[in-house]
């Protein structure tokens, strides 16, 4: 479903970190990929008129708007891209889908399982009318992840018995760092668990085709009060002398049992923290199978470590593969062989896949139902940590 000129006119709600990344994706994707529809960056939405206008100019949108409802009511909008805090996801997504707009919603899908369930119901109603929706788990679109998934599908790892999935950051290690919406449960839903742990869970399920069936978790909050933001300067703010309460987890750990797919019966160890001193954006996945293993670290995102356990004993061990060849997912559209790409390219690939699905009438992945499943895992970890239960089912 496009307009008469074969365009998809986009309204994006939110203009912070994710708004910048999504803007880059919308702007760059049609210049490097031959898309079946032309995305048009029509409207950017934010509550502060001055700041959203500054973002409009900076990111290259045609119009600025302060009310997302007006963007949804605009007959010239075909797609609504939701980059706002999690507390707003359900309301905006449901309204957009019911209005016949395709929806790309940032992860995690919602702040609660109940909200996610209402979003899935809206997505199912909309799909019956040809309206598409997807969740922005952008790391699925990193070429090394796509290549790893291909190796697993080809049976190169055999049966996966054990896995480790960690997302390690350190941007909260300064306890005088200011409060942000990401530290407020009302806005964010959860802390490290939902913000970055959701990525680790999704990648494990995406790579293996298996599902996290039960979990045993622990959550911790290390710093319970932080300075509030004071005067706004540009698109950011300065710290004030007032302090706010941190109401989310700073770090999460859990073990998991998986079912289905090539990792049926496997045990997984997961960690998500924003207190891992020295780790800037280390999303690390290691899958150990009967025939081989893979290891990936987002801080070396153009590389995949692969161990072929079927090789002669004297030749076994991890081999570094530079994932920059035209044969690797997405890479044929970028630079000559051996030239690396960066974090922002995953958002261009996300646009490519979403626009292609919408234009060809297919259901994009991951679906809202996939997002709901991740939400249920997050909820099970939270319940397990609160109760001290050894194992908590995710369904």
Which secondary structure elements does this structure contain, and how are they paired or packed?
Layout: E1 7-13, H1 17-32, E2 38-45, H2 49-59, E3 63-65, H3 68-73, E4 79-82, H4 89-98, E5 102-106, H5 113-127, E6 133-136, H6 143-153, E7 160-168, H7 185-188, H8 192-208, E8 211-220, E9 225-233, E10 236-245, E11 251-259, E12 267-273, E13 282-289, E14 292-297, E15 303-308, E16 318-322, H9 345-360, H10 368-387, E17 392-393
Parallel strand pairs: 1-2, 1-4, 2-3, 4-5, 5-6, 7-12
Antiparallel strand pairs: 7-13, 8-11, 8-17, 9-10, 11-12, 13-14, 14-15, 15-16
Helix pairs in contact: 1-9, 4-5, 5-10, 6-8, 8-10
Explained architecture:
Residues 232-236 have low confidence and may be disordered. This protein has 10 helices and 17 strands. 47% of the residues are buried. It has 395 residues and is of the alpha/beta class. The chain is globular. Strand 13 (282-289) and strand 14 (292-297) form a beta hairpin. Helix 6 (143-153) crosses helix 8 (192-208). 32% of the residues lie in helices and 28% in strands.
Label this structure with key terms.
395 residues; alpha/beta; nine-stranded mixed beta sheet; 10 helices; globular
Give the strand tally. 17
Shape: globular
Rg computed from alpha carbons, rounded to a whole number of angstroms: 21 Å
Main sheet strand line-up: 16-15-14-13-7-12-11-8-17
Distance between the termini: 34 Å
Low-pLDDT residue intervals, each spanning 5 or more residues: 232-236
Provide the structure class: alpha/beta
Secondary-structure element order, as H and E? EHEHEHEHEHEHEHHEEEEEEEEEHHE
Approximately how much beta-strand content do the residues carry?
25-35%
Tally of DSSP helical segments: 10
Percent helix: 25-40%
Main beta sheet? 9 strands, mixed
Mean pLDDT over all positions: 95
């Amino acid at each position: 479903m496009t307009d008469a000129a074969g365009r998809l006119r986009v309204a994006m709600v939110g203009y912070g970190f994710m708004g910048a990344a999504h803007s880059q994706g919308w702007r760059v994707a049609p210049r490097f990929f031959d898309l079946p529809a032309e995305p048009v960056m029509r409207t950017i939405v934010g509550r502060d008129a001055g700041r959203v206008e500054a973002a409009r100019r900076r990111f290259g949108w045609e119009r600025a708007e302060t009310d997302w409802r007006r963007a949804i009511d605009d007959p010239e909008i075909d797609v609504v891209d939701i980059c706002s805090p999690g507390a707003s996801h359900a309301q905006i997504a449901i309204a957009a889908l019911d209005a016949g707009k395709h929806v790309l919603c940032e992860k995690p899908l919602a702040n609660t399982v109940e909200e996610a369930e209402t979003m899935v119901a809206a997505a199912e109603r909309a799909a019956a009318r040809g309206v598409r929706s997807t969740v922005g788990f952008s790391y699925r679109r990193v070429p090394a992840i796509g290549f790893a998934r291909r190796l697993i599908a080809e049976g190169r790892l055999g049966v996966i018995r054990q896995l480790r999935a960690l997302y390690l950051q350190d941007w909260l290690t300064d306890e005088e760092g200011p409060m942000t919406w990401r530290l407020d449960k009302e806005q964010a839903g959860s802390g490290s668990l939902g913000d970055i742990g959701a990525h680790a869970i999704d990648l494990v399920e995406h790579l293996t085709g298996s599902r996290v069936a039960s979990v045993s978790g622990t959550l911790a909050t290390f710093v319970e009060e932080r300075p509030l933001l004071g005067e706004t300067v540009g698109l950011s703010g300065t710290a004030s002398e007032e302090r706010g309460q941190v109401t989310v987890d700073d770090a999460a750990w859990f073990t998991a049992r998986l079912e289905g797919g090539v990792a049926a019966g496997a045990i997984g160890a997961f960690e998500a923290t924003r207190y891992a001193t020295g780790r800037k954006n280390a999303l690390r996945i290691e899958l150990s199978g009967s025939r081989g293993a893979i290891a990936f670290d987002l801080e070396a995102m153009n590389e995949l470590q692969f161990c072929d356990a079927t090789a002669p004993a004297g030749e076994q061990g991890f081999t570094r593969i530079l994932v920059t060849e035209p044969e690797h997912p997405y890479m044929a559209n970028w630079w000559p062989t051996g030239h690396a790409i960066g974090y922002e390219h995953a958002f261009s690939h996300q646009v490519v896949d979403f626009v292609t699905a919408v234009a060809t009438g297919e259901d994009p992945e991951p679906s809202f139902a996939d997002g709901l499943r991740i939400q249920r895992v997050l909820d099970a970890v939270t319940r397990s940590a609160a109760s001290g239960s050894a194992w908590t089912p995710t369904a």
